[in-house]
Amino acid sequence: MKAVAVLPGSHEVKVIEQEVPRLCEPDQVTMRMLDIGICGTDKEICSFEYGTPPPGDDHLVIGHESLAEIVQVGPAVEHFQPGDLVVPSVRRPCPHPGCLSCRSEHQDYCYTGDFSERGIKEAHGYMAEYAVDHERYMNLVPADLREIAVLAEPLTIAEKALAQIFWMMQNRPPWLDPQTPRQESGRGLSALVLGIGPVGLLGAMTLATAGFTTYVYSRELPPNPRIDLVAGIGATYVSSQSAAFGDLAAQIGNIDLVYEAVGHSHFALQALQVLGTNGIFVLTGVPGLQAFIEADPARLMRDMVLKNQVLLGTVNAGPEDFAASLRDLDSFRQRWPAVVSTLIAGRYPAEQAAELILGRPTGIKSVITFELAGPRRSGGRHRPGPAGGRRR
Ligand SMILES: [Zn+2]
Ligand SMILES: [Zn+2]
Q1: Nearest ligand by distance to the CA of 50
Q2: pLDDT 10s digits, 153-181
Q3: How far apart are CA 185 and CA 165, in angstroms?
Q4: What is the whole-number distance in angstroms between the Cα of residue 106 and the centre of ligand 2?
Q5: How many C-alpha atoms does 374 have within 13 Å on its Cβ side?
Q6: Residue 356: CB atoms within 10 Å
Q7: What pTM, to 2 d.p., does this model score?
Q8: Longest Cα pair distance anywhere in the chain, in angstroms?
Q9: Could you say which ligand is closest to the alpha carbon of residue 96?
Q10: 359 pairs with which residues across the strands?
Q11: 178, 164, 202: which is closest to 321 by C-alpha?
Q12: How far is CA 289 from CA 50, 51, 60, 121, in A?
């Protein structure tokens, strides 16, 4: 089968031929990969700044945002059957018995750092025709989300952040009702999203769905399809080329939430200075090597204490965040059908993966699919698995 891999030793990104993976434990499933999204993490891996092959391998199969069809199940699989659509999670637990987070299936909170991540760190990813993994890492996708479910994984970033801040928001100020339904938990509050990439836009959609008055702030100027998307969900776009952070704060009033999705330290620091009273600042971007910046930590500390502020970093994601993500994709689809139809910029064959990953992003999310590669094999949607029913 084909797979897209990086070879750090020879600095190559290319389509390779590999053995089709086989089920080797009874609770595993074989997935036929349908859609694999590409993102900034893939760009860093393909620029050899990030990413680690599995121990003993000279290459790493990339791809962590995916949608697959189950084509084969092991004898101990209980909840899935061939034909089911799934989004597999990415992070796998560390081996340490004392890591309480990994031992309770919350490796997104791993204490040791010895976790692996499919397509990123010490485990091959999903940009391949087939993949095998344990049932417990699968998230069932309703069939009517087929076109957009590849966005579920990047959306879990916002879902996990919001799950944490809803708890904080509703349990800190006593005038907020802890029984408020999730769809209204942002009512009366304002949110500022930094960045207009897929993580920022999906974050803005989640915040708008939760009732926040949502603003998106980034460098880009119109015309730009990403700016059109912001308008399409009823949020307000402001370009940093036309308004400084101070003007923005004057326009918004008390900024209750900042959702940072850029990974730029200077930009984030400026935004922290306009965070409102009782505000929560969520960091999701992972900065690479950046220029050293000067800061006034005394001012930041003073503000954080005197304004009851929270600074929260978050990395995705647990099983409940995947479930929330799939629920929200369904609400996005019903609420903004025209916008949702623009989220996937295009589907491309594996041979184009390297140029798409390393080139300038076009549209919102580009997707690799093996469905376009060569003549379609016979058998339709429920074709038998690659191992021909063999199982151990
Ligand atoms: Zn990603
Ligand atoms: Zn751990």
Answers
A1: 1
A2: 999 999 999 988 876 765 556 666 767 77
A3: 10
A4: 8
A5: 7
A6: 19
A7: 0.91
A8: 66
A9: 2
A10: none
A11: 164
A12: 11, 15, 23, 19
- Is residue 161 within 8 Å of residue 257, measured between CB atoms? no
The closest ligand to the CA of 317 turns out to be 1
Q: How far is the CA of 97 from the centre of ligand 2 (A)?
A: 8
Distance of CA 335 to the CA centre of its chain: 21
- Strand ranges (DSSP E) for the chain? 2-7, 12-17, 28-37, 60-61, 65-73, 85-88, 91-92, 116-118, 122-123, 130-134, 138-141, 190-194, 213-218, 236-239, 257-260, 280-283, 310-313, 344-348, 365-368
Percent of the chain's residues with pLDDT above 70: 92
Q: DSSP per residue over 58-83, as a string?
A: S-EE---EEEEEEEEE-TT--S--TT
pLDDT at 380: 39
- Decide: 346 and 363 in contact? Cβ < 8 Å: yes
Query: Quick one: which ligand is closest to 126's CA?
Result: 1
Residue 284 tokens read as 């999701």
Q: Which amino acid is at 320?
A: E
In terms of Cα–Cα distance, which of 219, 277, 217, 283 is closest to 253? 277
Alpha carbon of 388 to ligand 1 centroid (Å): 32
Instruction: Give the number of whichever ligand sits closest to the CA of residue 286.
Output: 1
Phi, psi of 82 (to 5 degrees): -55, 140
Q: CB count, 10 Å around CB of 80?
A: 17
Cβ neighbours for 88, distance < 8 A, ≥ 6 positions apart: 31, 66, 68, 118, 126, 131, 133, 137, 138, 139
Q: What is the pLDDT of residue 313?
A: 94
At residue 233, does pLDDT exceed 90? yes
174 CA distance to ligand 1 middle (Å): 37
